[in-house]
Amino acid sequence: MLPRSRHPLSRRAFVGRAAGALGTTLGTAVVADFGTPRRRAIAAAADRLRHGAPADAADDEQFWREVRAAFTVAPSIVNLDNGNVSPSPRVVTESLVRHLEMEQDAPVLVRDMLGPGTANLARELAALLGCAPEEVAVTRNATEALHTVLLGYDLRPGDEVLTTTHDYWAMQNALDQRAARDGIVVKRVAVPVPAASMEQLRETIEGGMTPRTRLVLVSQPVNLTGQFFPVKQICEMAHARGADVVVDGAQGFAHVDFKIADLGCDYYAASLHKWLMAPIGTGLLYGRRDKLAKVWPLLPTAPAAPKDVAWKFMDIGTRSMAPFVAIGDAMHFHETLGAARKEARLRFLTRTWADRLAKVPKVRFSTSFASPEMSCGLASFSLDGVDDDALQRFLRDRLGILVQSIRYDRASFRGVRVTPNVYTSPADLDAFCDAVERVAAKGLPPSGRS
């Protein structure tokens, strides 16, 4: 005989419990429980800064110590690889675990009750983006969202899709498959590294356009280097030539402060488990309402389903709703920090380590620091005479410092990507810079020594 649940609940009590959770996390406004001392401390610290300029808070270490304490980050690890997957603050992890346990109490009931709540979640994500709720779909990551557009957008043989050599490999693979299957033409332009100006980047994209260009894919920012593009100008140029624009925002959403109108794009995709710090396996897809009918869902919906709403992309079968519910807590944490304040902190952290390593003769940057709008919290470098993979392994295995070594042959790119986050301290960056300076001066130590 199977053991009885350790938490026996009547159906009425169970429904009440689930409804209460929904009211907290997916209500008409995103409301996380800030009743604990730690959560109150962050809210109070943010309130203290509310009248100041965001840049003034960038180096306010008293505030950022409160933020750091909201994470369960191991003190023995210096995590500078948040552009891969970021840890979530404790409040998000607790929400995820709580709703996973609820699902195990009665999976079908919880799915039926939490599932409709994703409409509320779409409304909250739409508010962050500055668009209509019908234009937002909740996905599992940016790759799923972008593949939906790249593989579902109406194209005919001979139509061209323009992208760059620096766009993410999964999107390149999708376009190559589309070319092989449907006879479209994929054009790729080489991105200057580092770019001299936003105008140079705009001209690079313009130089790849032809009368047959139907769709333009651009990253904001590029995952390799953190390079931002003048997306608004690119969209205006593309629209004037009859092309639509899809933006890969996997590294941009909740990284910098913007609204979708600031970009002017037709489609936008993001992973929420990076800079929003939501649970792993969460993302979003935005589509302009008048452009949604151009995109076929990867998984078909009912024939009578509306064609001009992004929700048509969310019918993907059975899945756990717990990660999606916890997105609400991540959004509230993000909003408590303040999007502009967070952007200022990320730029401050990057410039802190980059300015220091810029004094090392052997360091070469792939990221442009020509003007503030060209980069933020993601930057890449290489060290003359030192293998990038070996440097990554040394930092990780000997010192507990996590960075990302990247080799991307399509773009002839190699480098080490560094991505701090809001819980990163100046001491973390000092430890990283100390190590790189030591390697630059003496080389990598022999195996078995640090």
TrEMBL record:
<keyword id="KW-0808">Transferase</keyword>
<keyword id="KW-0032">Aminotransferase</keyword>
<dbReference type="InterPro" id="IPR015424">
    <property type="entry name" value="PyrdxlP-dep_Trfase"/>
</dbReference>
<dbReference type="Pfam" id="PF00266">
    <property type="entry name" value="Aminotran_5"/>
</dbReference>
<dbReference type="GO" id="GO:0008483">
    <property type="term" value="F:transaminase activity"/>
</dbReference>
<dbReference type="InterPro" id="IPR015422">
    <property type="entry name" value="PyrdxlP-dep_Trfase_small"/>
</dbReference>
<keyword id="KW-0663">Pyridoxal phosphate</keyword>
<dbReference type="InterPro" id="IPR006311">
    <property type="entry name" value="TAT_signal"/>
</dbReference>
<protein>
    <submittedName>
        <fullName>Aminotransferase class V</fullName>
    </submittedName>
</protein>
<feature type="domain" description="Aminotransferase class V">
    <location>
        <begin position="123"/>
        <end position="405"/>
    </location>
</feature>
<dbReference type="InterPro" id="IPR015421">
    <property type="entry name" value="PyrdxlP-dep_Trfase_major"/>
</dbReference>
<dbReference type="InterPro" id="IPR000192">
    <property type="entry name" value="Aminotrans_V_dom"/>
</dbReference>
